Amino acid sequence: LSIPPEFALSFLSDLMQEALNSAANLSELLRGKGLRLGVTGLSRAGKTVFITALARQLTQLAGPGEKNPLPVFRVAAEDRLIGGRLEPQPDDHVARFSYEDHVAALTGPDRHWPQSTRQISELRLRVDFMRRDGFRSGPSHFTIDIVDYPGEWLLDLPLLQKSYAEWSHETFFASAAAARAPFASNWRGFAASLDPAGPEDEALARRAAETFTGYLRAARGDVYALSTLPPGRFLMPGDLEGSPALTFAPLRLPEGFEAANGSLAAMMERRYESYKALVVRPFFRDHFARLDRQIVLVDALAALNSGPDALRDLQNALNEVLAAFRVGRGGMLATLFRPKIDKILVAATKADHLHHQSHDRLEAILRQLTDRAISRSEFSGAEVDVIALAAVRATREAAVRHGRETLDAIVGVPLAGEKLDGQFFDGKTEAAIFPGQLPTDPRQVFRGDGLAIAEGDADVRFLRFRPPLVGRHEPLPHIRLDRACQFLFGDRLT
Amino acid sequence: MSDPRLDPRRFRPRAFRLDDQPSAAPDFVVEEKPDAYQIEAELLLDPAEQAVEKAQKQGFLGGGVFSWSGLLLSALGGLVSFAFTLWLSNLIDSLFARSAALGVIGLGLAALALLAALVLAGREIKSIFRQRQIALLHRELALAHESDDSDLSRKKVRELCALYKHDPFAAAAREKLKALRDEIIDGRDLIDIAERQLMPRLDDAARKEIADAAKRVSVVAAISPRAIVDVIFVAAQALRLIRRIAEIYGGRPGLLGAWRLARAVGAHLAITAGMAVGDSLLQQVLGHGIAAKISARLGEGVLNGLLTARIGLSAMAVCRPMPFFARKPPGIAEVAPFLIGGDKNKGS
Q1: Which residue has the higher pLDDT, A222 or A233?
Q2: CA neighbours within 13 Å on the CB side: how many for A314?
Q3: B6 CB near a chain A CB, below 8 Å?
Q4: How far is CA B147 from CA A371, A385, A487, B84, in A?
Q5: pLDDT tens digits for range A280-323
Q6: What distance in Å separates the CA atoms of residue B190 and residue B182, rounded to the nearest whole number?
Q7: Do A71 and B19 touch (CB under 8 A)?
Q8: In chain B, what percentage of residues exceed pLDDT 90?
Q9: What are phi and psi of A346, to 5 degrees?
Q10: Are the CB atoms for A298 and A230 separated by under 8 Å?
Q11: Which of A132, A433, A437 sits opposite B8 (nearest CB)?
């Protein structure tokens, strides 16, 4: 295969972009007042809620005499935080993060979690604070750039390193697992009837893409909660729906198969390559190649609900995705030409869905989930921390005495449709939930087979709750959001 | 795993509805718990610890390298040493002009003086570094305790043990902590254990030192014939007390070190003046008031004693290589009960 001109062009535009990045880095380095925070998380990990909560905590500060909601965040604890506001973002071609809508969703009369993100959006937060000491003491400001995007798209990053044949092989191999068989059979049946060496056919390609998408969607559902499901645009196409770049599917290719010109396999391969070049690479280049700090949000609870297979799948997905980022301690030259992420916070979100005494165990499980990424980052000199986090805390804690036993429970309003222990919830009733106990040994939850474990057999079951009832101007309750702030940018606000 | 509550099989996930349906009386009781995160946050905002941190900024952990007063002092110091060297070389030149033997003796004496000055300066620097290391250890142990970071805690507890490696009385505690370091234990708990193992003996020694100084000061102030005498005595005693406490906690303040330490203690005193560490200000004022009623001299003595005790407590907070976590910080009532408890023990 010769290199088609559009790939050569994309290579040139990559080079161009790198140069522009360096220029932007230089200007930022000289001003020294900005930070690009990468909020990384698969879909439903809580990116949008995290960004909204962060922006609200930093823009609506406690007045004098009021309780400081961010005690661990040094700059707030030392009363050096003057104020925060949203500023016009740097990129005009990207939608603005609809902060006001999300806040309204969380705190409005019909309080609910924001809808899942469908497109890229951007936010710039400006924080005014007092410098504490050193040469430049006195008032100063600092900007934080954050990008929100559909988590599904993140799954595409590992594809950049894979050829069509490799990807096809991996996808077929994964779908052959017993746990995936029920919802993969439709697509696998259709794919078996396709001949890779046969002539290219648009109708067949579309049908293959449709059944493949159906399989991905089924696997992602709440019941199974699987994660390794690239390509992400199949699940959340954005504005590319129906375009040829999205009309392909893996084919069962024999070992050492060479696709002849005009064959079905050649067509699929070309589309896969254009998907990488036209969709994945620009997304990565524009939004992830220039990060200073990263927070990785992981919804471990959904996977724990589903079972060991879902957890292993999540582990696989996270490690592959995180391998795409540049991490390490960078000197000044590196900051200019190859910026690296020097601090990574891995956070288990929705920590309010279990009692605080289980948080250590949840953190241990999270460590296990991201072990490869953590050791790689630590090896290259980046600082890594693991916490259990709830950007918006929807529950409070209580002890339930029932018969002779006392259970550490959480109290909140479960979402409509949640069920546990023979109780169905309508989204209005408050309930005390004992979600079960996580094992002391984190490896235990990865052992064995099981996907979509029925409620009666599960050792743990985490319900989802409605957002907390807070007034329009009250601070949102949270768990360790201040610790996350301190870790991610506390060192730049001294 | 001896606790049956940790067995995952014993407890299945449960839900208890909390709506007030009159249909069935619930067979469970829900007890609201105080918010654990709130309690944790309050621990972090301990004003006593913040005071120590601010005081250390004045002492050994000063933030900026540059300050105008520092520049002035360095520049003046440079000029003075130039003048001194000039004078010395002139002196030796003129000695050589008189006779070679005198010149050689002069040169030898200058070399000896230089050697002694270098050794003294080296000691001074070493002692400052040691005091600074203690201040850093204090800050980092506080940080490790705050974030419950087990790696940092292990490292810092090891440093804490190393600080007392020449202390024969701490040998058993050191061994115990060494054994504990490899076990699975929370960072915060490890620090608490280290405090209970290493600190009590030192705290007691410091307390005794403060009590003795307070006693001496109050007696001398009560019987001194001239005000200037007790001013000098109180100042000397305060300085001596600060140095003694620093030594008890493993520091070795030299001349400059003592100056910096005194600054830190002064800052801590100023910050905590309104906070009345450990007991109520009222008590102290009352104690003073009653004593003053009996005799003005006696009142004077009590006041000076109280002041000395406060200086001692501040010195204790600043010199201690770790904050008070597991142990309660002593107050005036613990170190000098004779000053506020009705003057029972005041033997004079």
Answers
A1: A233
A2: 36
A3: yes
A4: 21, 11, 11, 52
A5: 888 888 888 778 888 999 999 988 888 888 888 889 888 888 88
A6: 11
A7: no
A8: 20
A9: -100, 120
A10: no
A11: A437
Tell me the helices (H) and strands (E) count for chain A, helix number first: 16, 13
**Whole-number pLDDT of residue B345:** 42
Instruction: Please give the torsion angle defined by the CA atoms of residues B204, B207, B211 and B212, in that order, rounded to the nearest 10 degrees.
Output: 70
Residue with tokens 């010769």: A2
Mean pLDDT of all residues in A148-172: 87
* A341: DSSP letter: B
Q: How far apart are CA A132 and CA A75, in angstroms?
A: 9
From CA A230, how far away is CA A153, in angstroms rounded? 8
Partner-chain contact B15 A437, CB within 8 Å: no
Confidence of residue B1 (pLDDT cuts 50, 70, 90): very low
Give me A441's structure tokens. 């040994």
**How far apart are the CA of A72 and the nearest CA of chain B, in angstroms?**
7
B36 to chain A, closest Cα gap in Å: 8
Helical segments of A159-280, H only: 164-175, 181-192, 202-220, 232-235, 264-274
Convert the pLDDT of each residue in B80-105 to its tens digit: 999 999 999 999 999 999 999 999 99
- Of A92, A103, A95, A128, the C-alpha closest to A49 is A103
Residue among A408, A466, A451 at smallest CA distance from A227: A451
Q: Which residue's entry shows tokens 């008070």?
A: B324
Reported as a single tens digit per residue, the pLDDT across B23-56 is: 556 777 888 877 777 777 766 666 777 778 777 7
The Cα of A186 is separated from the nearest Cα of chain B by a number of Å equal to 35
Question: Can you tell me the distance from the alpha carbon of A229 to that of B71, in angstroms, rounded to the nearest whole number?
Answer: 63
pTM of the complete model: 0.73
Rounded CA separation B170/A311 (Å): 48
ipTM of the modeled complex: 0.72
Distance from CA of residue A106 to its chain's centroid? 20
Q: By C-alpha distance, which of A435, A170, A429, A175 is closest to A302?
A: A435
List Cα–Cα distances, B321 to A11, A171, B135, B200, in angstroms: 58, 58, 6, 13
Render pLDDT for A198-211 as a digit per residue (tens, 0 to 9): 888 888 888 999 99
Per 3-state DSSP, chain A is made up of helix, strand and coil in percentages (nearest 5) of 45, 20, 40
pLDDT of residue A3: 57
Q: How far is CA A241 from the centre of its chain?
A: 22
138-177 in B: which are within 8 Å (CB) of A? 146-147
Q: What pLDDT was estimated at residue B81?
A: 94
Residue with tokens 């600082």, as numbered in its chain: A383
Residue B104 backbone phi and psi in degrees, to 5: -65, -45
pLDDT at A222 over 90: no
DSSP conformation class of A63: P
User: What's the pLDDT band for A444 if we cut at 50, 70, 90?
Assistant: confident
